[in-house]
Amino acid sequence: MTLFLQLDFAALLAAVMACLACGLLGNLLLLTRQSLLGDAVSHAVLPGLVLGFAVTGTRATLPMVLGAMVAAVAAALLIALVRRLARLEAGAAMGVVFSGFFALGLVMMELTGARAVDLDVDCVLYGQLEALIWPAATGPASLLDPAALAELPVETRILAGVLALVVAGLALLWKELRLVAFDPGFAASIGFAPRRISLVVLVLVSVACVAAFWAVGSILVIAALVAPPAIARLLTDDYRRQFLFSALAALAMGGGGHGAAIGVPALLGLEFGLNAAGMMAVVAALMLAAAWTASPLRRRVNSATASPRDLQPTASIR
Amino acid sequence: MIEPALELRNLSVAYREAAVLRRVSWAAPASGLTAIVGPNGAGKSTLLKASLGLVPRLTGEALFFGQPLSAVRRRVGYLPQRASVDWEFPATALQVAAMGRYPRAGWFRPLPRAELERARAALAEVGMADFAERQIGQLSGGQQQRVFLARALALEADLYLMDEPFAGVDAATERAIVEVLHRLAREGRAVVAVHHDLATVAEYFTEVCLLNGELVAAGPVATTFTPENLARAYGGRLPMLDRPVPRTEPGAEPAWAAA
Protein backbone atom coordinates (compact mmCIF):
# COMPACT_ATOMS: atom_id res chain seq x y z
CA MET A 1 0.00 0.00 0.00
CA THR A 2 2.76 2.38 0.94
CA LEU A 3 4.59 1.44 -2.23
CA PHE A 4 1.45 2.17 -4.27
CA LEU A 5 1.04 5.54 -2.59
CA GLN A 6 4.67 6.43 -3.16
CA LEU A 7 5.00 5.30 -6.78
CA ASP A 8 1.53 5.31 -8.36
CA PHE A 9 -0.86 7.44 -6.34
CA ALA A 10 0.32 10.89 -7.45
CA ALA A 11 0.32 9.83 -11.10
CA LEU A 12 -3.09 8.16 -10.85
CA LEU A 13 -4.53 11.21 -9.10
CA ALA A 14 -3.05 13.54 -11.73
CA ALA A 15 -4.40 11.38 -14.56
CA VAL A 16 -7.90 11.24 -13.12
CA MET A 17 -8.03 14.95 -12.28
CA ALA A 18 -6.69 15.93 -15.70
CA CYS A 19 -9.33 13.82 -17.42
CA LEU A 20 -12.06 15.19 -15.14
CA ALA A 21 -11.17 18.86 -15.58
CA CYS A 22 -10.82 18.54 -19.36
CA GLY A 23 -13.74 16.15 -19.78
CA LEU A 24 -16.19 18.38 -17.90
CA LEU A 25 -15.21 21.48 -19.86
CA GLY A 26 -15.16 19.45 -23.07
CA ASN A 27 -18.96 19.16 -22.81
CA LEU A 28 -19.31 22.88 -23.41
CA LEU A 29 -16.95 22.70 -26.39
CA LEU A 30 -18.73 19.68 -27.85
CA LEU A 31 -22.15 21.31 -27.49
CA THR A 32 -20.94 24.48 -29.23
CA ARG A 33 -18.95 22.55 -31.85
CA GLN A 34 -15.55 23.83 -30.76
CA SER A 35 -13.95 20.56 -29.70
CA LEU A 36 -10.76 21.33 -31.60
CA LEU A 37 -9.99 24.18 -29.22
CA GLY A 38 -7.88 21.81 -27.12
CA ASP A 39 -5.72 21.08 -30.13
CA ALA A 40 -5.26 24.79 -30.67
CA VAL A 41 -4.38 25.44 -27.04
CA SER A 42 -1.90 22.58 -26.81
CA HIS A 43 0.03 23.98 -29.77
CA ALA A 44 -0.27 27.57 -28.69
CA VAL A 45 1.44 27.06 -25.32
CA LEU A 46 4.90 26.57 -26.85
CA PRO A 47 5.94 30.27 -26.88
CA GLY A 48 4.80 30.50 -23.25
CA LEU A 49 6.94 27.52 -22.27
CA VAL A 50 9.99 29.02 -23.98
CA LEU A 51 9.30 32.38 -22.41
CA GLY A 52 8.98 30.84 -18.95
CA PHE A 53 12.26 29.08 -19.52
CA ALA A 54 14.00 32.17 -20.95
CA VAL A 55 12.91 34.43 -18.10
CA THR A 56 13.86 32.11 -15.25
CA GLY A 57 16.65 30.18 -16.97
CA THR A 58 15.48 26.91 -15.40
CA ARG A 59 13.14 24.12 -16.31
CA ALA A 60 11.30 24.48 -13.00
CA THR A 61 7.66 23.54 -13.39
CA LEU A 62 5.92 26.56 -11.95
CA PRO A 63 7.32 29.35 -14.17
CA MET A 64 6.83 27.24 -17.26
CA VAL A 65 3.26 26.37 -16.32
CA LEU A 66 2.58 30.05 -15.73
CA GLY A 67 4.15 30.95 -19.09
CA ALA A 68 2.10 28.27 -20.80
CA MET A 69 -1.12 29.47 -19.17
CA VAL A 70 -0.44 33.04 -20.27
CA ALA A 71 0.19 31.88 -23.84
CA ALA A 72 -2.88 29.64 -23.85
CA VAL A 73 -5.18 32.36 -22.56
CA ALA A 74 -3.67 34.86 -25.01
CA ALA A 75 -4.25 32.41 -27.86
CA ALA A 76 -7.83 31.78 -26.74
CA LEU A 77 -8.58 35.50 -26.58
CA LEU A 78 -6.90 36.04 -29.95
CA ILE A 79 -9.06 33.30 -31.49
CA ALA A 80 -12.16 35.04 -30.20
CA LEU A 81 -10.89 38.35 -31.56
CA VAL A 82 -10.00 36.94 -34.98
CA ARG A 83 -13.42 35.31 -35.24
CA ARG A 84 -15.13 38.58 -34.51
CA LEU A 85 -12.97 40.90 -36.61
CA ALA A 86 -12.33 38.69 -39.62
CA ARG A 87 -15.72 36.92 -39.42
CA LEU A 88 -14.00 33.57 -39.82
CA GLU A 89 -15.60 30.33 -38.72
CA ALA A 90 -14.20 28.89 -35.49
CA GLY A 91 -12.03 26.20 -37.09
CA ALA A 92 -10.26 28.62 -39.42
CA ALA A 93 -9.59 31.15 -36.65
CA MET A 94 -8.16 28.41 -34.41
CA GLY A 95 -5.98 27.10 -37.23
CA VAL A 96 -4.51 30.50 -37.96
CA VAL A 97 -3.82 31.38 -34.34
CA PHE A 98 -2.41 28.08 -33.08
CA SER A 99 -0.08 27.48 -36.01
CA GLY A 100 1.12 31.07 -35.67
CA PHE A 101 1.77 30.63 -31.95
CA PHE A 102 3.52 27.31 -32.51
CA ALA A 103 5.78 28.85 -35.15
CA LEU A 104 6.52 31.77 -32.86
CA GLY A 105 7.47 29.28 -30.16
CA LEU A 106 9.91 27.51 -32.50
CA VAL A 107 11.54 30.81 -33.44
CA MET A 108 11.83 31.81 -29.78
CA MET A 109 13.33 28.42 -28.99
CA GLU A 110 16.16 29.03 -31.48
CA LEU A 111 16.67 32.64 -30.44
CA THR A 112 16.84 32.02 -26.69
CA GLY A 113 18.97 28.90 -26.99
CA ALA A 114 16.36 26.88 -25.13
CA ARG A 115 16.78 24.18 -27.74
CA ALA A 116 20.40 23.65 -26.76
CA VAL A 117 19.41 22.59 -23.26
CA ASP A 118 16.69 20.41 -24.76
CA LEU A 119 13.17 21.46 -23.97
CA ASP A 120 12.01 17.90 -23.85
CA VAL A 121 9.84 17.05 -26.84
CA ASP A 122 8.81 13.68 -25.44
CA CYS A 123 7.57 15.36 -22.31
CA VAL A 124 5.50 17.80 -24.35
CA LEU A 125 3.95 15.04 -26.43
CA TYR A 126 3.34 12.38 -23.78
CA GLY A 127 3.59 14.23 -20.51
CA GLN A 128 5.60 12.97 -17.58
CA LEU A 129 2.98 11.02 -15.69
CA GLU A 130 5.47 8.26 -14.77
CA ALA A 131 7.72 10.85 -13.15
CA LEU A 132 5.03 11.89 -10.66
CA ILE A 133 5.92 10.19 -7.40
CA TRP A 134 5.11 10.85 -3.75
CA PRO A 135 8.07 9.76 -1.65
CA ALA A 136 6.66 11.52 1.41
CA ALA A 137 3.87 8.94 1.73
CA THR A 138 4.35 6.61 4.67
CA GLY A 139 1.02 4.78 4.60
CA PRO A 140 -2.74 5.39 4.22
CA ALA A 141 -2.59 7.95 7.03
CA SER A 142 -0.61 10.23 4.70
CA LEU A 143 -3.81 10.82 2.68
CA LEU A 144 -5.16 12.86 5.59
CA ASP A 145 -1.88 14.43 6.63
CA PRO A 146 -1.58 18.02 5.35
CA ALA A 147 2.18 17.97 5.66
CA ALA A 148 2.47 14.85 3.52
CA LEU A 149 -0.13 16.09 1.01
CA ALA A 150 1.89 19.28 0.58
CA GLU A 151 4.74 17.06 -0.61
CA LEU A 152 2.70 15.81 -3.59
CA PRO A 153 4.31 16.79 -6.92
CA VAL A 154 3.54 20.33 -7.99
CA GLU A 155 1.79 19.08 -11.17
CA THR A 156 -0.69 17.11 -9.06
CA ARG A 157 -1.34 20.03 -6.75
CA ILE A 158 -1.86 22.44 -9.65
CA LEU A 159 -4.32 19.99 -11.21
CA ALA A 160 -6.25 19.77 -7.94
CA GLY A 161 -6.57 23.55 -7.87
CA VAL A 162 -7.61 23.73 -11.50
CA LEU A 163 -10.19 20.94 -11.08
CA ALA A 164 -11.68 22.81 -8.12
CA LEU A 165 -11.81 25.98 -10.26
CA VAL A 166 -13.54 24.15 -13.12
CA VAL A 167 -16.14 22.53 -10.86
CA ALA A 168 -16.82 25.84 -9.11
CA GLY A 169 -17.17 27.64 -12.46
CA LEU A 170 -19.59 25.04 -13.80
CA ALA A 171 -21.67 25.10 -10.63
CA LEU A 172 -21.81 28.89 -10.43
CA LEU A 173 -22.67 29.40 -14.11
CA TRP A 174 -24.71 26.22 -14.61
CA LYS A 175 -27.83 27.75 -16.14
CA GLU A 176 -25.96 30.63 -17.80
CA LEU A 177 -23.60 28.23 -19.61
CA ARG A 178 -26.50 26.13 -20.87
CA LEU A 179 -28.30 29.24 -22.09
CA VAL A 180 -25.28 30.61 -23.94
CA ALA A 181 -24.32 27.24 -25.41
CA PHE A 182 -27.84 26.69 -26.74
CA ASP A 183 -28.87 30.14 -27.96
CA PRO A 184 -26.35 33.00 -27.68
CA GLY A 185 -28.64 35.40 -29.56
CA PHE A 186 -31.50 35.00 -27.11
CA ALA A 187 -29.03 35.14 -24.22
CA ALA A 188 -27.78 38.51 -25.44
CA SER A 189 -31.33 39.80 -25.90
CA ILE A 190 -32.16 39.14 -22.24
CA GLY A 191 -28.91 40.64 -21.00
CA PHE A 192 -26.91 37.47 -20.27
CA ALA A 193 -23.71 38.56 -22.04
CA PRO A 194 -22.80 35.54 -24.18
CA ARG A 195 -19.39 36.91 -25.21
CA ARG A 196 -18.22 37.34 -21.65
CA ILE A 197 -19.46 33.89 -20.67
CA SER A 198 -17.76 32.34 -23.73
CA LEU A 199 -14.54 34.05 -22.74
CA VAL A 200 -14.76 32.58 -19.25
CA VAL A 201 -15.11 29.15 -20.86
CA LEU A 202 -12.15 29.83 -23.16
CA VAL A 203 -9.96 30.87 -20.26
CA LEU A 204 -11.02 27.88 -18.15
CA VAL A 205 -10.30 25.52 -21.05
CA SER A 206 -6.88 27.08 -21.56
CA VAL A 207 -5.96 26.81 -17.90
CA ALA A 208 -7.23 23.22 -17.66
CA CYS A 209 -5.41 22.26 -20.86
CA VAL A 210 -2.08 23.58 -19.65
CA ALA A 211 -2.37 22.02 -16.21
CA ALA A 212 -3.36 18.68 -17.72
CA PHE A 213 -0.90 19.00 -20.57
CA TRP A 214 1.98 19.19 -18.14
CA ALA A 215 0.98 15.98 -16.47
CA VAL A 216 -0.24 13.97 -19.41
CA GLY A 217 1.06 15.55 -22.61
CA SER A 218 -0.45 17.35 -25.54
CA ILE A 219 -1.94 14.28 -27.23
CA LEU A 220 -3.87 13.07 -24.23
CA VAL A 221 -5.20 16.55 -23.52
CA ILE A 222 -7.13 16.42 -26.76
CA ALA A 223 -8.44 12.95 -25.95
CA ALA A 224 -9.46 14.08 -22.47
CA LEU A 225 -11.34 17.10 -23.86
CA VAL A 226 -13.16 15.25 -26.60
CA ALA A 227 -13.64 11.60 -25.60
CA PRO A 228 -15.62 11.82 -22.31
CA PRO A 229 -18.19 14.30 -23.70
CA ALA A 230 -18.48 12.32 -26.93
CA ILE A 231 -19.09 9.12 -24.96
CA ALA A 232 -21.73 10.82 -22.81
CA ARG A 233 -23.39 12.36 -25.85
CA LEU A 234 -23.98 8.89 -27.29
CA LEU A 235 -25.66 7.74 -24.10
CA THR A 236 -27.98 10.57 -23.14
CA ASP A 237 -30.10 13.48 -24.32
CA ASP A 238 -30.25 14.97 -20.84
CA TYR A 239 -28.08 17.98 -20.02
CA ARG A 240 -27.35 16.99 -16.41
CA ARG A 241 -26.57 13.39 -17.35
CA GLN A 242 -24.33 14.59 -20.16
CA PHE A 243 -22.03 16.10 -17.52
CA LEU A 244 -22.46 13.19 -15.09
CA PHE A 245 -21.68 10.53 -17.70
CA SER A 246 -18.72 12.50 -19.05
CA ALA A 247 -17.32 12.71 -15.51
CA LEU A 248 -17.71 8.95 -15.10
CA ALA A 249 -16.08 8.36 -18.47
CA ALA A 250 -13.23 10.67 -17.48
CA LEU A 251 -12.74 8.75 -14.23
CA ALA A 252 -12.70 5.44 -16.07
CA MET A 253 -10.39 6.84 -18.70
CA GLY A 254 -7.86 8.22 -16.20
CA GLY A 255 -7.95 5.26 -13.82
CA GLY A 256 -8.34 2.60 -16.48
CA GLY A 257 -5.59 3.99 -18.66
CA HIS A 258 -3.17 4.22 -15.81
CA GLY A 259 -4.05 0.70 -14.66
CA ALA A 260 -3.76 -0.68 -18.18
CA ALA A 261 -0.32 0.83 -18.61
CA ILE A 262 0.86 -1.20 -15.63
CA GLY A 263 -1.39 -4.23 -15.96
CA VAL A 264 -1.31 -5.04 -19.65
CA PRO A 265 2.47 -5.53 -19.90
CA ALA A 266 2.41 -7.66 -16.72
CA LEU A 267 -0.41 -9.72 -18.19
CA LEU A 268 1.48 -10.30 -21.43
CA GLY A 269 4.75 -10.92 -19.64
CA LEU A 270 6.42 -7.98 -21.33
CA GLU A 271 9.63 -6.56 -19.98
CA PHE A 272 8.65 -2.89 -20.41
CA GLY A 273 5.81 -0.68 -19.18
CA LEU A 274 3.36 1.05 -21.49
CA ASN A 275 2.92 4.81 -21.70
CA ALA A 276 0.06 5.75 -19.37
CA ALA A 277 -1.11 8.73 -21.41
CA GLY A 278 -1.31 6.62 -24.53
CA MET A 279 -3.23 3.88 -22.74
CA MET A 280 -5.76 6.45 -21.51
CA ALA A 281 -6.50 7.45 -25.09
CA VAL A 282 -6.82 3.77 -26.00
CA VAL A 283 -9.22 3.14 -23.09
CA ALA A 284 -11.24 6.19 -24.11
CA ALA A 285 -11.48 4.98 -27.69
CA LEU A 286 -12.66 1.54 -26.52
CA MET A 287 -15.28 3.18 -24.28
CA LEU A 288 -16.45 5.31 -27.18
CA ALA A 289 -16.89 2.20 -29.31
CA ALA A 290 -18.79 0.50 -26.48
CA ALA A 291 -20.99 3.56 -25.98
CA TRP A 292 -21.79 3.63 -29.67
CA THR A 293 -22.83 0.00 -29.54
CA ALA A 294 -24.94 0.61 -26.45
CA SER A 295 -26.51 3.85 -27.61
CA PRO A 296 -30.18 3.84 -28.56
CA LEU A 297 -30.68 3.16 -32.24
CA ARG A 298 -32.33 6.54 -32.65
CA ARG A 299 -29.12 8.47 -32.04
CA ARG A 300 -27.19 6.53 -34.63
CA VAL A 301 -29.67 6.90 -37.44
CA ASN A 302 -30.76 10.37 -36.47
CA SER A 303 -29.14 12.24 -39.31
CA ALA A 304 -30.44 9.79 -41.88
CA THR A 305 -34.06 10.22 -40.84
CA ALA A 306 -34.46 13.94 -40.32
CA SER A 307 -38.13 14.75 -40.14
CA PRO A 308 -39.52 15.42 -43.62
CA ARG A 309 -40.99 18.67 -42.37
CA ASP A 310 -37.51 20.03 -41.78
CA LEU A 311 -36.59 19.42 -45.39
CA GLN A 312 -39.49 21.35 -46.86
CA PRO A 313 -38.91 24.94 -47.80
CA THR A 314 -40.68 27.31 -45.49
CA ALA A 315 -44.29 27.73 -46.42
CA SER A 316 -44.19 31.13 -47.95
CA ILE A 317 -44.74 33.02 -51.14
CA ARG A 318 -41.60 34.39 -52.63
CA MET B 1 -48.08 61.09 -25.46
CA ILE B 2 -47.63 57.33 -25.70
CA GLU B 3 -44.10 56.37 -26.64
CA PRO B 4 -43.77 53.99 -29.59
CA ALA B 5 -42.82 50.45 -28.54
CA LEU B 6 -39.88 50.51 -30.93
CA GLU B 7 -38.45 53.55 -32.64
CA LEU B 8 -35.63 53.35 -35.15
CA ARG B 9 -33.71 56.51 -35.97
CA ASN B 10 -31.58 56.49 -39.09
CA LEU B 11 -30.62 52.84 -38.63
CA SER B 12 -27.98 51.50 -41.04
CA VAL B 13 -26.34 48.07 -40.94
CA ALA B 14 -23.66 46.61 -43.19
CA TYR B 15 -22.15 43.15 -43.35
CA ARG B 16 -18.61 43.68 -44.65
CA GLU B 17 -19.06 46.27 -47.41
CA ALA B 18 -22.61 45.50 -48.44
CA ALA B 19 -25.21 47.70 -46.82
CA VAL B 20 -28.15 45.61 -45.62
CA LEU B 21 -30.18 48.39 -44.09
CA ARG B 22 -29.92 52.00 -45.19
CA ARG B 23 -31.08 54.85 -42.99
CA VAL B 24 -34.27 53.28 -41.70
CA SER B 25 -36.34 55.56 -39.52
CA TRP B 26 -39.55 53.99 -38.35
CA ALA B 27 -41.70 53.70 -35.26
CA ALA B 28 -43.80 50.70 -34.29
CA PRO B 29 -47.04 51.56 -32.49
CA ALA B 30 -47.11 51.22 -28.70
CA SER B 31 -49.43 48.24 -28.96
CA GLY B 32 -50.86 45.92 -31.58
CA LEU B 33 -49.51 43.59 -34.21
CA THR B 34 -47.06 44.78 -36.84
CA ALA B 35 -45.70 42.74 -39.76
CA ILE B 36 -42.33 43.44 -41.35
CA VAL B 37 -42.60 42.40 -44.98
CA GLY B 38 -40.15 42.46 -47.84
CA PRO B 39 -38.23 40.30 -50.31
CA ASN B 40 -35.38 37.99 -49.33
CA GLY B 41 -32.33 39.98 -48.32
CA ALA B 42 -34.42 43.04 -47.52
CA GLY B 43 -32.88 43.19 -44.05
CA LYS B 44 -35.97 42.15 -42.08
CA SER B 45 -34.21 39.85 -39.61
CA THR B 46 -31.27 42.24 -39.53
CA LEU B 47 -33.60 45.04 -38.49
CA LEU B 48 -34.69 43.05 -35.44
CA LYS B 49 -31.14 41.97 -34.57
CA ALA B 50 -29.69 45.45 -35.00
CA SER B 51 -32.44 46.90 -32.81
CA LEU B 52 -31.47 44.44 -30.06
CA GLY B 53 -27.76 45.09 -30.56
CA LEU B 54 -27.10 41.53 -31.74
CA VAL B 55 -25.41 42.81 -34.88
CA PRO B 56 -23.40 46.04 -34.93
CA ARG B 57 -25.11 49.19 -36.18
CA LEU B 58 -23.33 51.40 -38.68
CA THR B 59 -25.42 54.44 -37.88
CA GLY B 60 -28.51 55.29 -35.92
CA GLU B 61 -30.16 54.05 -32.77
CA ALA B 62 -33.09 52.03 -31.56
CA LEU B 63 -35.32 53.20 -28.73
CA PHE B 64 -37.70 50.95 -26.83
CA PHE B 65 -40.59 52.75 -25.16
CA GLY B 66 -38.53 55.90 -25.66
CA GLN B 67 -35.44 54.54 -23.92
CA PRO B 68 -32.30 52.60 -24.83
CA LEU B 69 -32.67 48.82 -24.58
CA SER B 70 -30.47 48.51 -21.49
CA ALA B 71 -32.95 50.61 -19.50
CA VAL B 72 -36.04 48.58 -20.45
CA ARG B 73 -34.68 45.11 -21.21
CA ARG B 74 -37.29 43.39 -19.06
CA ARG B 75 -40.07 44.82 -21.26
CA VAL B 76 -38.60 43.49 -24.51
CA GLY B 77 -38.77 39.89 -25.71
CA TYR B 78 -37.06 38.28 -28.69
CA LEU B 79 -38.17 35.19 -30.61
CA PRO B 80 -35.25 34.13 -32.83
CA GLN B 81 -35.63 32.09 -35.99
CA ARG B 82 -36.13 28.43 -35.20
CA ALA B 83 -33.29 27.48 -37.53
CA SER B 84 -30.81 29.62 -35.58
CA VAL B 85 -30.13 26.97 -32.93
CA ASP B 86 -29.06 23.32 -32.81
CA TRP B 87 -32.16 21.33 -31.83
CA GLU B 88 -30.07 18.23 -31.08
CA PHE B 89 -28.90 20.09 -27.97
CA PRO B 90 -29.50 17.99 -24.83
CA ALA B 91 -32.30 20.04 -23.29
CA THR B 92 -35.98 19.48 -22.61
CA ALA B 93 -38.83 21.68 -23.79
CA LEU B 94 -39.29 22.86 -20.21
CA GLN B 95 -35.60 23.73 -19.82
CA VAL B 96 -35.77 25.85 -22.97
CA ALA B 97 -38.99 27.58 -21.95
CA ALA B 98 -37.49 28.21 -18.51
CA MET B 99 -34.78 30.34 -20.13
CA GLY B 100 -37.50 32.95 -20.47
CA ARG B 101 -37.50 33.24 -16.66
CA TYR B 102 -33.74 33.71 -16.29
CA PRO B 103 -33.97 37.52 -16.12
CA ARG B 104 -36.25 37.13 -13.07
CA ALA B 105 -33.90 34.65 -11.40
CA GLY B 106 -30.73 36.64 -12.03
CA TRP B 107 -27.16 35.43 -12.29
CA PHE B 108 -25.27 32.72 -10.42
CA ARG B 109 -28.14 30.75 -8.95
CA PRO B 110 -30.44 27.96 -10.02
CA LEU B 111 -33.91 28.80 -11.24
CA PRO B 112 -36.38 28.87 -8.32
CA ARG B 113 -39.19 26.31 -8.50
CA ALA B 114 -41.84 29.03 -8.80
CA GLU B 115 -40.15 30.37 -11.93
CA LEU B 116 -40.03 26.87 -13.38
CA GLU B 117 -43.79 26.63 -12.85
CA ARG B 118 -44.27 29.90 -14.76
CA ALA B 119 -42.33 28.38 -17.64
CA ARG B 120 -44.56 25.28 -17.44
CA ALA B 121 -47.62 27.51 -17.66
CA ALA B 122 -46.19 29.20 -20.74
CA LEU B 123 -45.74 25.78 -22.35
CA ALA B 124 -49.33 24.96 -21.48
CA GLU B 125 -50.57 28.12 -23.18
CA VAL B 126 -49.08 26.97 -26.49
CA GLY B 127 -50.42 23.43 -26.03
CA MET B 128 -47.08 21.89 -25.15
CA ALA B 129 -47.71 20.90 -21.52
CA ASP B 130 -47.56 17.20 -22.36
CA PHE B 131 -44.15 17.60 -23.99
CA ALA B 132 -42.42 19.46 -21.14
CA GLU B 133 -39.94 16.68 -20.39
CA ARG B 134 -39.34 15.76 -24.04
CA GLN B 135 -35.91 16.40 -25.51
CA ILE B 136 -36.28 19.21 -28.05
CA GLY B 137 -34.73 17.20 -30.89
CA GLN B 138 -37.66 14.78 -30.67
CA LEU B 139 -40.24 17.49 -31.35
CA SER B 140 -41.64 18.36 -34.76
CA GLY B 141 -40.74 21.69 -36.34
CA GLY B 142 -44.06 23.20 -35.31
CA GLN B 143 -43.67 21.96 -31.74
CA GLN B 144 -40.17 23.41 -31.59
CA GLN B 145 -41.55 26.75 -32.72
CA ARG B 146 -44.15 26.58 -29.95
CA VAL B 147 -41.41 25.91 -27.39
CA PHE B 148 -39.63 29.04 -28.62
CA LEU B 149 -42.89 30.97 -28.36
CA ALA B 150 -43.41 29.67 -24.81
CA ARG B 151 -39.93 30.84 -23.88
CA ALA B 152 -40.74 34.30 -25.25
CA LEU B 153 -44.08 34.38 -23.40
CA ALA B 154 -42.32 33.41 -20.18
CA LEU B 155 -40.48 36.74 -20.42
CA GLU B 156 -43.83 38.56 -19.95
CA ALA B 157 -42.58 41.38 -22.14
CA ASP B 158 -44.55 44.36 -23.41
CA LEU B 159 -42.92 44.28 -26.84
CA TYR B 160 -42.04 41.14 -28.75
CA LEU B 161 -39.69 41.07 -31.72
CA MET B 162 -40.44 37.83 -33.57
CA ASP B 163 -38.29 36.54 -36.41
CA GLU B 164 -40.52 34.53 -38.78
CA PRO B 165 -42.74 32.95 -36.13
CA PHE B 166 -44.81 31.21 -38.81
CA ALA B 167 -41.91 29.78 -40.85
CA GLY B 168 -42.34 26.11 -41.63
CA VAL B 169 -45.02 25.34 -39.05
CA ASP B 170 -48.06 23.11 -39.35
CA ALA B 171 -51.62 24.43 -39.41
CA ALA B 172 -52.28 23.65 -35.75
CA THR B 173 -49.18 25.54 -34.67
CA GLU B 174 -50.10 28.46 -36.91
CA ARG B 175 -53.50 28.68 -35.19
CA ALA B 176 -51.85 28.43 -31.77
CA ILE B 177 -49.47 31.26 -32.61
CA VAL B 178 -52.30 33.44 -33.92
CA GLU B 179 -54.22 32.90 -30.69
CA VAL B 180 -51.20 33.97 -28.68
CA LEU B 181 -50.75 37.07 -30.85
CA HIS B 182 -54.38 38.00 -30.31
CA ARG B 183 -54.02 37.55 -26.55
CA LEU B 184 -50.95 39.80 -26.52
CA ALA B 185 -52.73 42.45 -28.60
CA ARG B 186 -55.81 42.36 -26.35
CA GLU B 187 -53.57 42.98 -23.36
CA GLY B 188 -52.18 46.08 -25.05
CA ARG B 189 -48.78 44.58 -25.80
CA ALA B 190 -46.92 45.13 -29.05
CA VAL B 191 -45.60 42.54 -31.48
CA VAL B 192 -43.28 43.26 -34.39
CA ALA B 193 -42.94 40.12 -36.52
CA VAL B 194 -41.00 39.35 -39.66
CA HIS B 195 -43.61 37.72 -41.87
CA HIS B 196 -43.22 35.95 -45.20
CA ASP B 197 -46.72 34.92 -46.13
CA LEU B 198 -48.19 37.91 -47.97
CA ALA B 199 -51.58 36.16 -48.13
CA THR B 200 -52.05 36.30 -44.36
CA VAL B 201 -50.64 39.75 -43.58
CA ALA B 202 -54.01 41.45 -43.59
CA GLU B 203 -55.59 38.62 -41.63
CA TYR B 204 -53.05 38.49 -38.79
CA PHE B 205 -51.67 42.03 -38.52
CA THR B 206 -52.97 45.55 -38.24
CA GLU B 207 -49.80 47.44 -39.10
CA VAL B 208 -47.22 46.73 -41.74
CA CYS B 209 -43.68 47.88 -42.42
CA LEU B 210 -42.53 47.26 -46.00
CA LEU B 211 -38.80 46.93 -46.25
CA ASN B 212 -36.31 46.56 -49.07
CA GLY B 213 -32.94 47.55 -47.69
CA GLU B 214 -34.61 50.82 -46.91
CA LEU B 215 -38.04 51.68 -45.63
CA VAL B 216 -40.56 51.50 -48.49
CA ALA B 217 -43.78 52.23 -46.63
CA ALA B 218 -45.21 51.82 -43.15
CA GLY B 219 -48.62 52.27 -41.62
CA PRO B 220 -51.96 50.52 -41.11
CA VAL B 221 -52.38 47.42 -43.25
CA ALA B 222 -55.61 48.80 -44.69
CA THR B 223 -53.90 51.79 -46.29
CA THR B 224 -50.29 50.69 -46.62
CA PHE B 225 -50.46 47.06 -47.75
CA THR B 226 -51.36 47.98 -51.33
CA PRO B 227 -50.27 46.36 -54.61
CA GLU B 228 -48.46 49.59 -55.50
CA ASN B 229 -46.35 49.58 -52.29
CA LEU B 230 -45.73 45.84 -52.62
CA ALA B 231 -44.50 46.35 -56.17
CA ARG B 232 -42.09 48.98 -54.87
CA ALA B 233 -40.87 46.75 -52.05
CA TYR B 234 -40.33 43.80 -54.34
CA GLY B 235 -38.74 45.89 -57.08
CA GLY B 236 -41.45 45.21 -59.63
CA ARG B 237 -40.99 41.47 -59.19
CA LEU B 238 -44.25 41.15 -57.33
CA PRO B 239 -44.52 37.52 -56.28
CA MET B 240 -47.46 35.57 -57.53
CA LEU B 241 -50.05 35.29 -54.82
CA ASP B 242 -52.05 32.13 -54.53
CA ARG B 243 -54.95 34.26 -53.47
CA PRO B 244 -55.54 37.93 -53.87
CA VAL B 245 -54.52 40.29 -51.09
CA PRO B 246 -57.72 40.86 -49.15
CA ARG B 247 -58.55 44.54 -49.37
CA THR B 248 -59.71 45.36 -45.89
CA GLU B 249 -62.02 48.29 -45.67
CA PRO B 250 -60.28 51.32 -44.21
CA GLY B 251 -61.10 51.56 -40.54
CA ALA B 252 -62.31 47.98 -40.31
CA GLU B 253 -61.54 46.38 -36.95
CA PRO B 254 -59.75 43.05 -36.95
CA ALA B 255 -61.59 40.17 -35.31
CA TRP B 256 -59.55 40.10 -32.10
CA ALA B 257 -60.03 43.81 -31.42
CA ALA B 258 -63.80 43.41 -31.27
CA ALA B 259 -63.56 40.56 -28.75
Automatic annotation (TrEMBL), chain A:
How does the record say this protein sits in the membrane?
A: Multi-pass membrane protein
Where does it live in the cell? Cell membrane
From the Swiss-Prot or TrEMBL record, give the protein name: Metal ABC transporter permease
Q: Which SUPFAM superfamilies match?
A: ABC transporter involved in vitamin B12 uptake, BtuC
Is this entry keyworded Electron transport? no
Could you say which protein family the record assigns here? Belongs to the ABC-3 integral membrane protein family.
Q: Which GO terms describe its biological process?
A: response to zinc ion; transmembrane transport
Give UniProt keywords alphabetically: Cell membrane, Membrane, Transmembrane, Transmembrane helix, Transport
* Gene source species: Teichococcus oryzae
The record, for InterPro entries, names: ABC_BtuC-like, ABC_TroCD
This protein's major location comes to membrane
Q: Which GO terms describe its cellular component?
A: ATP-binding cassette (ABC) transporter complex
Stretches that traverse the bilayer = 12-31, 61-81, 88-109, 158-174, 211-231, 243-268, 274-294
Query: Pfam families, from UniProt?
Result: ABC-3
Automatic annotation (TrEMBL), chain B:
Q: What is this protein called?
A: Metal ABC transporter ATP-binding protein
Under the heading InterPro entries, the entry gives:
AAA+_ATPase, ABC_transporter-like_ATP-bd, ABC_transporter-like_CS, Metal_Ion_Import_ABC, P-loop_NTPase
Q: Which PANTHER family match?
A: IRON TRANSPORT SYSTEM ATP-BINDING PROTEIN HI_0361-RELATED, METAL TRANSPORT SYSTEM ATP-BINDING PROTEIN TM_0124-RELATED
Keyword check for Zinc, yes or no: yes
Q: Which GO terms describe its molecular function?
A: ATP binding; ATP hydrolysis activity
Q: Which family does it belong to?
A: Belongs to the ABC transporter superfamily.
* One BP term from GO: zinc ion transport
Record domain ABC transporter: where: 6-238
Q: Which UniProt keywords apply?
A: ATP-binding, Ion transport, Nucleotide-binding, Transport, Zinc, Zinc transport
Entries under SUPFAM superfamilies matching the protein:
P-loop containing nucleoside triphosphate hydrolases (SSF52540)
The organism's lineage is:
Bacteria, Pseudomonadati, Pseudomonadota, Alphaproteobacteria, Acetobacterales
This protein's record includes keyword Kinase: no
